[in-house]
Design goal:
Elements: H1 4-19, E1 29-34, E2 39-42, E3 58-61, E4 66-67, H2 77-86, E5 92-95, H3 99-107, H4 116-121, H5 134-138, H6 141-152, E6 163-165, E7 171-175, H7 178-201, H8 210-220
Antiparallel strand pairs: 1-2, 1-5, 2-3, 3-4, 5-7, 6-7
Helix pairs in contact: 1-7, 2-6, 3-7
Bound molecules: zinc ion (ZN).
Zinc ion binds near residues 95, 97, 169 and 170.
Length: about 230
């Protein structure tokens, strides 16, 4: 089987979304990329998670052409491909309709950084895309979804902010591989829930100060990182 290890990793990452409670039914999808081979492995469309096998994980090239596969890929594949093309360091993409992240996407509000949990993972607020135009929606919708995300990141480092809220839709998250993308999707849901509670407790809550935000972000990321054990991220 082509790319057996990547397919196993992508299957496991998709199942992890279910275990962590951020997807229901067949909502949500995770992919991973082999940059060397220029191939992407992604969840098949419409297959229930509890029946999904490694053989069913769909492999495509960077134009979405099927390779060594009979099933149709997740319909969101073109969004994933746009992210892989524009964000060269990412190795996995996860999309969910997780409850609180989706609520902020529907409210079309970026998630402010209210505390150090957010600051550990995201170097600023989690941005929300602009609304898509009728032309974008009526054309190659999933590809245009990727393009609107990429445009939103024209002045944001995707490695420092590994998630976005697509307006009126839901979050897309990414990471160094499929498992990391799922990890970030679960964290995104957690900080979205806490931000919801924060503004419920105090509608005038202020975002975390820049100094404390930077302290938490940079102790886990970049050349000065010292959080955790060496080599464990
Ligand atoms: Zn969706």
């Amino acid at each position: 089987m082509l790319l057996k290890a990547l397919r196993e990793e992508v299957l496991e990452a998709n199942l992890e979304l279910v275990r962590r409670g951020v997807v229901i039914f067949t909502f949500g999808n995770v992919s991973g990329i082999s940059r060397e081979e220029g191939l992407v492995a992604i969840k098949p469309s419409g297959v229930p998670y509890d029946e999904m096998t490694v053989e069913q994980i769909v492999v495509t090239d960077m134009d979405g052409r099927l390779v060594d596969t009979n099933l149709r890929p997740s319909s969101d594949l073109p969004t994933h491909l746009e992210l892989y093309k524009a964000f060269p360091n990412i190795g996995g993409v996860a999309h969910t309709h997780s409850e609180f992240g989706t609520a902020w996407a529907q409210a079309k509000r970026p998630i402010p950084c209210f505390g150090t949990t957010h600051a550990d993972y995201f170097h600023q607020s989690v941005p929300v895309t602009p609304d898509m135009t009728p032309e974008e929606i009526g054309g190659e919708y999933e590809k245009a979804t990727g393009e609107v995300i990429v445009r939103t990141f024209h002045d944001i480092d995707p490695d420092a902010v590994p998630a976005v809220l697509v307006a009126g839709h839901a979050p897309f998250c990414w990471g160094k591989d499929a498992a990391d993308a799922v990890h970030n999707a679960v964290i995104l849901e957690y900080i979205a829930r806490m931000a919801t509670h924060t503004v419920a407790v105090n509608p005038d809550a202020e975002p975390l100060g820049r100094v404390l935000h930077d302290k938490h972000f940079f102790r886990k990321h970049g050349p000065g990182a010292y959080y955790g054990q060496p080599g464990n991220g």
